Amino acid sequence: MTTPRCPSYASSVLRKILVANRGEIACRILRTCKRLGIATVAVYSDADAQAPHVAMADEAVRIGPAPVKDSYLNIEAILDAARTTGADGVHPGYGLLSEKRAFADAVAAAGITFIGPPPEVLDAFGDKIRAREVARKVGVLPPPGTDGPLDPADTEAVAREAERIGFPLLVKAAGGGGGIGMQIVPDAAKLARAVQACSDRGRQAFADPRVYLERYIEKPRHIEVQVLCDGKGGAVALGERECSVQRRHQKIIEETPSPAAFFQGSEGEARRQKLLSDALRVVTSVGYVGAGTVELVASQSGEIWFLEVNARLQVEHCVTEMVTGIDLVEQQIRVASGEALAPEILANERRGSSIEARVYAEDPAKKFAPQPGRVTRLAWPEAGEDLRIETGITEGLDVTPFYDPMLAKVVAFGETRADAIQRLDAALGATTLELTGPAGPAASNLTFLRKVLASEEFAGGQYDTSLAEALVKR
After folding, report:
1. Stretch 420-444: mean pLDDT
2. Which regions span the lipid bilayer (predicted)?
3. Of 312, 358, 388, 423, which one is the catalytic site residue?
4. What pTM did the predictor assign?
5. pLDDT tens digits, residue range 70-98?
6. What Rg, from alpha-carbon coordinates, does the chain have?
């Protein structure tokens, strides 16, 4: 990890933190806790008994069998682990229980500090329909869409709303995230089926069948803003991230600052500053505390609309850390401990460029299908000030079908964007990764990531969310 340029000192409040997560993000959080002198507790399922995060922690507690519903989503098992070990803080990481109010409430009821936004904030942003209303009230507009949830069975009402909004449009699960429960609908003929499919997916993944419609922005760019608030009046937007290299609506390469043409020059900088101000206005309107991300969508001309708020740490937080020198996990812990953001954090100084590539056990040639198997050979390039390797695997471990197949994040820094691209490409090229599945060699996306970096569109910074799937066909 890059050494923080901002001063660091041990927190005086939290003494032992349980990390309610797994994989690379668990390792990432544990590393910061150790640097701060805070004792740590890992939790693990049967499938993760030999995982690196288990060995890294001072203590580790088994919480159940491999399926997430029986382990990493088992609130009572996690709380039992916290009570048994005497943890006075719980960090949820990202995904899993990180944005679940029921978990935050249960942690608080146990007399333990939840290292994340307060429950009422999770309520405000955990529901995308409500989040749109929060943004609208402070003058930050979402794309045109429905004002409330739709009943998939009321096909006439759905058709009327679709006609009002116009095609193409998006059907979205109200409780969704990570591209789950979302479909692009080009015309009326495919509407009813898409609404029902997204509703079913929302019910399965989030226990929430509600859906809504939103105008689809063609050739969109996915922009997001990292925010940090202390609940005491201190709030800062730590720059924007460009997250438009995606497959299945899920990100695989992220960078900061955005290279989009509409952020260039004096007019572009004015647009950037307005974007940061808008993002802060949305989160502070509900009393936000901690780290979070305001996600937005932009047209090629630079019109920007609000999408949602992820009330947690993002997978791609590392690129922001690289250009600011701020350890966002440390700041989450400090804010949760009742500390105010330091002046040097609020000063929001950024330099250079950073790009992150997510390494997955997946086959781009097969629609990015996950590739479970065993990591039979693994070697990373040497990390340093300008290169981070964030991973939760080691050679000999299995990539199971129970969890997301992300193996690592490779994050490069450069004084210029070109430097960052070159450094990241060299790091990916120096990586040795071999996977063996049940029927023989299994694929990863390493070669594909380098193909993206080498593409004319990415090199020129003028790409949109269709780039990754277009490159698969070349």
Report:
1. 97
2. none
3. 312
4. 0.92
5. 999 999 999 999 999 999 999 999 999 99
6. 21
